Amino acid sequence: MTGDGTRAVRAGLPEPERYEPALPGPVFAAHYHLPGEASGPFTYGRDANPTWSRLEEAISELESPDADAETVVFASGMGAIAAVLLSQLRQGDTAVLPSDGYQLLPALAERLRSFGVRVRTAPTGGDAQLTALDDTTGLLWLETPSNPGLDVCDIRGLAEAAHARGALVAVDNTLATPIGQRPLELGADFSVASGTKALTGHGDVLLGYVTCRDPELAAAVRGWRKTVGAIPGPMEAWLAHRSLATLPLRVDRQARTALALAGALRDRPEVTGVRHPGLPDDPAHPVAAGQMRGGRFGCVVSFTLPGKEHAERFLTALRLVDDATSFGGVRSTAERRGRWGGDAVAEGFIRFSVGAEDPDDLVADVLRALDEARDGD
């Protein structure tokens, strides 16, 4: 059994050939030579591509190293999320979604309702998600840690309860990545993620994926991708595969620095509501410690400053941190999350994504920016 780092640098690579690159370049093709019957691994560019196939194999190795699994990659994380929900739910089914999840989930919930799917919502963690389940539930959607609140739910316990009612379970694993958490090993049917974030980690790719162990479920998701054409470009797929080799290094570094930053923020009187699942007294820590792998609790820290203007001064004063959305990149980013609307957060709520900078430098920059923001009151 190999470790995460060894697996990541070799995942999805073809057998070595003399004078050939370890990771072949992207294949740009709309069609392929196809004599005779319309069958084979590569027939048309909307169905499959050798570059996608290598990436899909690699992600499967990371998400499910101990059991066979299939991955389907998409043009974005929302493409992957929509594919699971819309390929599995039918009129009359009930979907249970997180009320505190990614901000585009409500828009997708409205689409489901327009198709005759009943939608219930419940906050991540506690008993609310469990009590939302009943015998009409077709699919339970979990997001853990949640974005941006960083709450955590018990994947294994909820999966067992959902399966007992005949429901499928999907987990948005974006924040944790397969290095930090493996939902399929905890009983989920689908592990779904936006590869735009930490998986690729360089802020230069839009990508999503779905991994599952059941071939029939994978076929349904793949069929949805083909029907709606939500396919990734070969260059994006190749860049994503290239990035996997450093995923464990990035995840480890970012998680350690995020925990250090969260601890430093706790000492600031103007900072409230500091959240990071790695903090021993964080409400999410007991569950996170039982299902997140190797003490890797993610790169995101959330906290609240005293109002919109104070938060804007803080963001402007940062020198090593970009004021940008998204998370998981090698360059730290932070944003006042309320500027987008759709999240139930205070005006001064900050979602901070820790990058790969030197921890001491990053913490010092944040503390200096906090001083400048406070002095501006």
Automatic annotation (TrEMBL):
<protein>
    <submittedName>
        <fullName>Cystathionine gamma-lyase</fullName>
        <ecNumber>4.4.1.1</ecNumber>
    </submittedName>
</protein>
<dbReference type="GO" id="GO:0019346">
    <property type="term" value="P:transsulfuration"/>
</dbReference>
<dbReference type="Pfam" id="PF01053">
    <property type="entry name" value="Cys_Met_Meta_PP"/>
</dbReference>
<dbReference type="GO" id="GO:0030170">
    <property type="term" value="F:pyridoxal phosphate binding"/>
</dbReference>
<dbReference type="GO" id="GO:0005737">
    <property type="term" value="C:cytoplasm"/>
</dbReference>
<dbReference type="GO" id="GO:0004123">
    <property type="term" value="F:cystathionine gamma-lyase activity"/>
</dbReference>
<dbReference type="InterPro" id="IPR015422">
    <property type="entry name" value="PyrdxlP-dep_Trfase_small"/>
</dbReference>
<keyword id="KW-0663">Pyridoxal phosphate</keyword>
<dbReference type="InterPro" id="IPR000277">
    <property type="entry name" value="Cys/Met-Metab_PyrdxlP-dep_enz"/>
</dbReference>
<keyword id="KW-0456">Lyase</keyword>
<dbReference type="GO" id="GO:0019343">
    <property type="term" value="P:cysteine biosynthetic process via cystathionine"/>
</dbReference>
<comment type="similarity">
    <text>Belongs to the trans-sulfuration enzymes family.</text>
</comment>
<dbReference type="InterPro" id="IPR015424">
    <property type="entry name" value="PyrdxlP-dep_Trfase"/>
</dbReference>
<feature type="modified residue" description="N6-(pyridoxal phosphate)lysine">
    <location>
        <position position="197"/>
    </location>
</feature>
<dbReference type="InterPro" id="IPR015421">
    <property type="entry name" value="PyrdxlP-dep_Trfase_major"/>
</dbReference>
